[in-house]
Design goal:
Elements (H helix, E strand, L loop, with lengths): L2 E5 L1 H14 L4 E4 L8 H13 L7 E3 L5 H5 L6 E3 L14 E5 L2 H10 L4 E5 L11 H12 L5 E8 L8 H14 L8 E5 L3 H10 L4 E6 L1 H4 L6 E13 L4 E2 L4 E2 L4 E7 L17 H15 L3 E7 L2 E5 L7 E7 L10 E4 L10 E4 L1
Helix pairs in contact: 5-6
Length: about 350
């Protein structure tokens, strides 16, 4: 009676090994809901990757709140991606902090002179990071603190595949010019570069260690290894005009109401804004808006080979679907496929073969 993430274990593990082998020094990212797998499972799987002989540079947490769960299952270096701020307690001296403001670097060194940290440079994404002049000032500050433990440069690039190398080269040159001291300062921690761009970076900056931070492409990169299913909880025949649901809607035609597991508590029916601004995406949005206005909303559930409509908005832990007359009707207890956004879905169970 659950919303279940089913994983083809051998295929998924082969994918993890292949990605790690292609990206030496990989920094797996475990954040949020753990890409649907949970944070603890990703920490254990990162250890599995390392134990298979692959070089793992560190494990990356999204926020400081996620650190305790990851620390229980990972014994290596732990990088926190959210920049450190002065109100964050320094409870763990082994964490690698991300520092994105010069004033925060000054405060961090005052509170914990032996803190480990990376310096984040502002990219065209413009979320966090220092300017070139701030980075150079940071280098000058660190030369006055010989005990500081700078762990390198952090770059968070936009998601678009490819085309970032020119910007990366410019930003790395800014870092080279800052002359940041430290045994491990010649390290580049970077997200969202292609395999070709990473190879070029290693070749052109041979004195640097490159640490590719990889989340989605690692954990969710082989969607064929992942299948999400929901349980059919109830099936009810319904005639045209009969009322149903919380809001007493009338059935638009005869058919069946299907009650399936998965609701708003799981993330079903909750949609984040999309970044695709193509004409096709806009046309799809207009089409969906027209369906919404008419009371017909596509669900993520597939029954009988077709995506079915919600009979009404999802409930907290279950959803009601409408099957028109003639559609194949599953039995109570059957599993139906669900297409979800893994990073926004909480599963009742994760089953790995």
């Amino acid at each position: 009676m659950s919303l279940v993430l089913n994983v083809d274990g051998p295929r998924w593990r082969d994918h993890l090994s292949a990605v790690a082998a292609a990206n030496p020094g990989i920094v797996p990212v475990a954040k949020g809901n753990g890409y649907g797998f949970t944070l603890g499972r990703l920490a254990r799987k990162t250890r599995w990757i390392r134990d298979r002989g692959h070089e793992v540079g560190a494990l990356a947490a999204g926020t400081y709140d996620e650190v305790p769960e990851l620390e229980q299952r990972w014994d290596g270096d732990l990088l926190v991606l959210t920049p450190w701020r002065p109100w964050v307690p320094l409870q763990n001296r082994n964490l690698i902090h991300t520092v994105s403001r010069l004033e925060d670097l000054e405060r961090l060194l005052a509170l914990e002179p032996r803190a480990r940290f990376v310096l984040e440079r502002m990219t065209s994404m413009r979320r966090h990071g220092m300017s070139a002049s701030e980075l150079w000032a940071a280098g000058e500050l660190l030369r006055k603190h010989p005990g500081a433990r700078a762990e390198g440069l952090a770059l968070h690039m936009p998601l678009a595949a490819g085309g970032h190398y020119g910007e990366v080269e410019r930003l790395v040159n800014d870092y080279v010019g800052a002359s940041v001291p430290g045994e491990r300062a010649a390290t580049i921690w970077v997200s969202h570069l292609t395999t070709g761009e990473l190879g070029r970076l290693r070749q052109e900056y041979a004195d640097f260690t490159v640490r590719p931070r990889i989340g989605t492409a690692l954990w969710l990169g082989d969607r064929g290894a992942l299948r999400v299913t929901a349980t059919v909880l109830d099936v009810h025949p319904i005639d045209r005009g009969e009322p149903y649901g919380y809001r007493g809607r009338s059935a638009p035609r005869s058919g069946h109401l299907l009650v399936v597991s998965g609701g708003t508590a799981h993330g079903i029916g909750l949609e984040a804004p999309v970044g695709d601004h193509s004409l096709r995406s806009r046309a799809n949005s207009i089409a969906r808006g027209g369906m919404d206005a008419a009371g017909f909303v596509r669900s993520p559930y597939t029954v009988g080979g077709k995506v079915r409509l919600f009979a009404e908005p999802p409930h907290m832990q279950a959803s009601m679907l409408f099957l028109p007359t003639g559609a194949p009707v599953p039995s109570v207890g059957d599993a139906v496929d669900v297409r979800v956004r893994h990073t926004a879905t909480t599963f009742d169970e994760v089953v790995i073969d």
